TrEMBL record, chain A:
A biological-process GO annotation: phenylacetate catabolic process
Any one annotated GO CC term: cytosol
Signal peptide range in chain numbering: none
Species this chain originates from: Parageobacillus thermantarcticus
Protein name in UniProt: Ring-1,2-phenylacetyl-CoA epoxidase subunit PaaC
PANTHER family, A to Z: 1,2-PHENYLACETYL-COA EPOXIDASE, SUBUNIT C, PHENYLACETIC ACID DEGRADATION PROTEIN PAA
UniProt xrefs under InterPro entries: Aromatic_CoA_ox/epox (IPR052703), Ferritin-like (IPR012347), Ferritin-like_SF (IPR009078), PaaA_PaaC (IPR007814), PaaC (IPR011882)
NCBIfam families, A to Z: PA_CoA_Oxy3
From TrEMBL, chain B:
InterPro entries: Aromatic_CoA_ox/epox, Ferritin-like, Ferritin-like_SF, PaaA, PaaA_PaaC
GO BP annotations, alphabetical order: phenylacetate catabolic process
Native organism: Parageobacillus thermantarcticus
Gene3D superfamilies: 1.20.1260.10
GO-annotated molecular function: phenylacetyl-CoA 1,2-epoxidase activity
Entry GO terms, CC: cytosol
Protein's name in the database: Ring-1,2-phenylacetyl-CoA epoxidase subunit PaaA
One Pfam family per UniProt: PaaA_PaaC
From TrEMBL, chain C:
Name under which the protein is recorded: Ring-1,2-phenylacetyl-CoA epoxidase subunit PaaB
Gene3D superfamilies tied to this protein: Phenylacetic acid degradation B
Organism: Parageobacillus thermantarcticus
InterPro entries given in the database record: PaaB, PaaB_sf
Cross-referenced Pfam families: PaaB
């Protein structure tokens, strides 16, 4: 890894006091990881009861629960560092402080989860599949992170990703290889996801520092691995894999977000905001 | 049981006699076994309604899934609503196997729901406007469901009994999930306590209705006699309602809530709870899909079904090709 | 039960194994358009709260089930102790005459470990 001091390992949050710059970059990375999983699992939770098939609704919900569980683990790491309580970090922060990729905050489709939801299953499958593969690549790298509490969390999260990947890959391949309307919908969803997929793969302005501190490998390497993993799948469904991915609606890693995220935060914190100090 | 040399040579009467002997001996009837038509039809109606009620029942609580006030509450209620869908899945499978000889599948179940031919449980037509409603549903609606479902754990129809066994095991988690939300509110701020009392007031009548009318005289129809004859259940609607009061009224009072029925008391001499009857005419209206949220929730279910039809179409032809 | 043919709603029976030495156990059935989709839904539908080490999905139309009448063929008389150790219980006394212990099930199954000399 470039510029990494191989002896540098931080084993406990307390040690971070002596490394303020390291801490700052670590916090940035943890927010990216936590916010990504949190907002996508929130979007997934809106689907509950509305999936195309009852059995799939149940399977999908398990994946959303796992993913929100992962977010909770990352927020807990932030809490352990003294950044704030996990629940406050998840519910209280305005969109300008969020670090998730813009792709993951996008609404599931037209309508609201309580009224006239016309959610797009093709978009759900493509977004979740591509994101999960990116998450897998990231997690494999984080298993060797210089911040050992994060490396330990990565080992745990990795366990659940096999199922998530298998599940989404199956849906992706079958629907994309189906004829007619389904294939067209899937192609459209793939194009739409690629428009903002650069935002998932980037580590933001502090990415280089993350690499220097041995927190994670470079976004260039991670992107290559993602492409490597997806190549055979794209061949199987007979689609072209682009070499560049867009950030059409901004770089969420730098706090750029859409109105979709503001709306989501309002909803997900509706009860919490009634009384943030109360026990719920 | 008489030794059967060849089952198909038996007359319909002999088959029925043999069937009733099996029922009375406590044997389980399986999907492909011979069964009288009214047994099959009663089961289809009961189990399809039970199953679709779970699916529709996911909707009022689901409103609160994205809004739950902490990470742990979000996870807990997601798992709970997922279970409701899961219970619906189990029950619909049982109903679908019973309907298969009639040439019906899940497709027809959904169509019957949309047409209004297949009813869903009265409680799931009601609004759930606050977080306390989500907790109250988990605590008391699930509590009521536990009372009716445990009553059928020994049902003579094997697949239903097996599904209920799975369901009741998960209901224990649901009950505790509901209690956890309720107790946090009951021990919370003044506003939280008020929110909880309001939810109880809102749900009380629906909870009384949950167990169904005391007899056919109340609403014109009641399936309870036939379900008891065929050993699908053992207790009457009123017995179940009384059981519910016995288990839950002391708990409701113990956490400082007030019952929204001032006449309610336990009559020692009769050994019965005395309570104000709900408006059974309103009950009839509600289950005819004229409840406060009936149309809206049916619309959600129907929209998601049609909106995703392309997914089912896409994969419906390739069973051999994959 | 009619569940053959094509279509999205096909019946699959789900089986699982608790651990590597446990027998396969039937869980429940689900509807899926094909084996692959059935498999990715199976665990979360029926085993959300238990760990398993293997899952099988079997299309129900591939299963030959018994009819109600055929189940009569499962009944048998209770006169087959020659098939079981119950029919050989007298050996215990016999071996005692030779000052040897009977090799019962407990003893024999214990041989997988070290044999005491």
């Amino acid at each position: 890894m470039e510029g990494r001091d191989p002896t540098m390992k931080i084993t406990k949050p307390e040690e971070l006091q002596q490394h303020p710059e390291y801490k700052e970059v670590l916090v940035e990375l943890l927010f990216q990881l936590a916010d990504d999983d949190f907002i996508l699992s929130y979007r997934g939770s809106e689907w509950l009861g509305l999936a195309p098939h009852i059995e799939e609704d149940i399977a999908f919900s398990s994946i959303n629960q796992d993913t929100m569980g992962h977010a909770a683990m990352y927020y807990q790491l932030l809490e352990d560092i003294g950044i704030g309580k996990a629940d406050d970090l998840a519910h209280q922060r305005p969109s300008s402080e969020r670090r998730n990729a813009v792709l993951l905050e996008e609404v599931n489709g037209p309508g609201h989860y309580l009224s006239e939801p016309r959610y797009d299953w093709a978009f759900a499958v493509v977004r979740h599949y591509f994101y999960t593969q990116a998450k897998k690549v990231r997690i494999d790298s984080l298993k060797h992170s210089s911040y050992e509490p994060l490396a330990q969390v990565a080992v745990k999260i990795n366990m659940e990703l096999y199922y998530h990947l298998m599940h989404w890959r199956t849906w992706f391949i079958q629907l994309t290889n189906a004829q007619g309307e389904a294939r067209e919908r899937m192609k459209k969803a793939v194009a739409k996801v690629f428009e903002d997929f650069g935002g998932v793969l980037t580590l933001g302005v502090k990415g280089d520092r993350m690499v220097e501190f041995g927190l994670i490998e470079s976004e260039k390497i991670l992107k290559q691995r993602w492409v490597q993993a997806m190549k055979p799948v794209f061949a199987e469904v007979n689609l072209d894999l682009p070499s560049e991915f867009g950030m059409k609606r901004g770089n969420g890693r730098n706090g750029e977000h859409t109105a979709d995220l503001d709306e989501a935060i309002m909803t997900l914190s509706e009860v919490y905001r009634l009384d943030p100090l109360a026990t719920w | 049981m008489p030794v059967v040399t060849s089952f198909r040579w038996l007359s319909e009467e002999e088959k029925y006699e043999r069937f009733m002997e099996r029922i009375n001996a406590g044997e389980k009837i399986e999907a492909d076994d011979w069964m009288p038509e009214d047994y099959r039809m009663t089961l289809i109606k009961l189990i399809a309604m039970h199953g679709i009620s779970e699916i529709m029942g996911a909707l009022p609580e689901k409103e609160w899934v994205p809004k739950a006030p902490s990470l742990r509450r979000k996870l807990g209620i997601m798992a709970k609503v997922q279970d409701e869908m899961g219970h619906g899945q189990l029950l619909l499978r049982v109903a679908e196997d019973l309907m298969a000889p009639l040439g019906k599948t899940r497709e027809e179940i959904m169509q019957d729901l949309f047409k209004g031919d297949l009813k869903f449980h009265n409680v799931f037509h009601m609004p759930a406007p606050t977080w306390a409603d989500a907790g109250l549903i988990g605590w008391l609606v699930d509590g009521a469901a536990i009372i009716t479902q445990t009553n059928m754990l020994d049902a003579s129809y094997g697949p239903y009994a097996r599904a209920l066994k799975r369901i009741c095991a998960e209901e224990v988690f649901h009950a505790q999930h509901g209690e956890s939300i309720i107790l946090a509110l009951a021990e919370g701020t003044k506003e939280q306590k008020e929110m909880l009392q309001d939810a109880l007031n809102r749900w009380w009548e629906a909870l009384l209705m949950f167990f169904g009318p005391g007899s056919a005289a109340t609403t014109g129809t009641s399936k309870q006699d036939i379900t008891i004859k065929y050993r699908i259940r053992t207790k009457t609607n009123e017995q179940l309602r009384q059981d519910f009061f016995t288990k839950y009224v002391p708990r409701i009072l113990s956490i400082g809530l007030k019952l929204p029925d001032e006449t309610m008391h336990f009559d020692e001499s009769k050994g019965k709870w005395v309570y104000k009857q709900p408006d059974w005419n309103r009950f009839k209206e509600i289950i005819r899909n004229n409840g406060p949220k009936s149309k809206e929730r049916l619309r959600l279910r129907e929209l998601s079904y049609h909106n995703n039809a392309w997914v089912r179409e896409a994969l419906s032809g390739q069973s051999a090709a994959v | 039960m009619s569940d053959s043919g094509k279509g999205f709603y096909q019946v699959f029976e789900v089986f699982s194994r608790k651990n590597d030495t446990a027998p396969l156990q039937h869980q429940f059935s689900l509807l899926a358009p094909n084996h692959e989709i059935a498999l990715v839904m199976a665990q979360e539908n029926f085993m959300r709260r238990e760990t398993v080490s293997d899952i099988w999905v079997v299309k129900r139309s591939d299963i030959r089930m018994m009819t109600e009448e055929e189940k009569e063929s499962l009944k048998r008389l209770d006169n087959k102790d020659y098939r079981t150790t119950k029919g050989y219980g007298y050996l215990k006394k016999k071996w005692r005459q030779y000052e040897q212990q009977m090799l019962d099930e407990k003893e024999i199954l214990s041989w997988k470990g070290e044999i005491q000399r």
